[in-house]
Amino acid sequence: MARRSRKKKQPAVSLPDDLVMEILARVPYRSLCRFKCVSQSWQALCSDPDLRKMSPQTLSGFFCHARKERDDGRDSGVRFINLSGKGRPLVDPDFLFLHDFVSIGLQLVNCCSSLLLCKCFKTSPHPWDADWVVCNPATEKWTVLPATEALHCSKSFTIRLGFDPATPSRFEAFLLKQGSLLDGRITGVAIYSSETGQWISMKSEWGDETCVDDNDSQFVFFNDTLHFTTFHSARDDFCVEDSRCECDYSLVTLDTEGKTWRKFPLPYHDTSFCSIGQSQGRLHAMHIDHGENQFILSVWLLEDYATGQWTLMHTANVPQLFGRHCRYRGEFCSLIAVHPECNVIFLIDGVTSMLVSYNMDDRKVRVICSAREYYHLPFPTYIPCFAEWPSDVI
Question: Which residues form a coiled coil (predicted)?
Fold first, then answer.
């Protein structure tokens, strides 16, 4: 024993810093934050801004709106939920880096992957006295969309961002012009490109009766194309509350250059509440049948853009997912999102008001946190991006 104790321990293998950097560049950002605790040298390596820009990112959480705002006079009602369900928010939902606007008022309009679109009021809460700001909460950089007649003068429009983390140096904004506040008919489209710094405008090619609802329509951007759900009104005096309305619910797409216009039927076209999402490079459609005798989750894939063919890939009995034998009276579950990298769906249990994830591969449900204090829709997903914008964008 004494002889063994006198043996010298072999020193740990040391790797060159450049090789360690190459390894760490393949580690998600959350892991980099944890690795800072290994040693002082690792803390320095993991804090390197160039490494942070290269590290792959994944879904980190969800933005949402609180049912009750704080009493500090600066609260926009925006909250951020970490996917882990615990710990400090990855981003500050108060957006204090927008120091020129937060004292007056700020409204979160859209989140596309890593970028946010905010309506920032300049001197008063009047809707026409506002700037439309695109910002990256990870880098705290922001830019104001340039003026265009539709953006600052139109009374009715819907605007959404287009951003792909694979090309972080640019983004697009899609402005859907609508005929009036009542019917939602799309009359034209304007597209802004951060590369050119210009808006281009065109008349809608989806048909005169194609309508969009800023609250209910679902929007997804990938493959340089905006995808969103619409409805087609068969009556000139369309009224949402009128059960006699004949509506055709569809998926429409438009590329960033405004050249390719497409329109497909949704796989579940009896209702507008068919959620869409991008996962693993393919478009998914999701629906929960809330009928009296059914409570079934269905998930489809858009297999063929040329024919608009959807393929049913998964079904599940929702009450059984939550360990219940039958549906509660009045029970309603909200579909939130699909994970961009794996077969996981996020939804809110209508009985417990818990935000949960459902893995379609092993059919397991995991509780994330309570969603009781938040409005259930929308819950836009957020993936951080630490790449810097070109100086002419900021």
Answer: none
The DSSP output letter for 155 is: S
Per the confidence metrics, is the pTM higher than 0.70? yes
Percent of the chain with pLDDT over 90: 42
- 3-class state of residue 161 by DSSP: strand
57 Cβ partners below 8 Å, 6+ apart? 28, 29, 114, 165, 383, 384, 385, 386
Sign of the C-alpha dihedral computed for residues 158, 159, 165 and 166 taken in this order: positive
* pLDDT at residue 359, rounded to an integer: 97
| CB contact set of 218 (below 8 Å; sequence gap of 6+) | 228, 229, 274, 275, 276, 277
Per-residue pLDDT reduced to its tens digit, 206-232? 988 889 887 778 999 999 999 999 876
DSSP-assigned letters across all residues of 4-68: HHTSPPPPPP---HHHHHHHHTTS-HHHHHHHTTS-HHHHHHHT-HHHHHHS-----EEEEEBSS
Owner of token pair 């012009």: 177
Tokens of 26: 């393949």
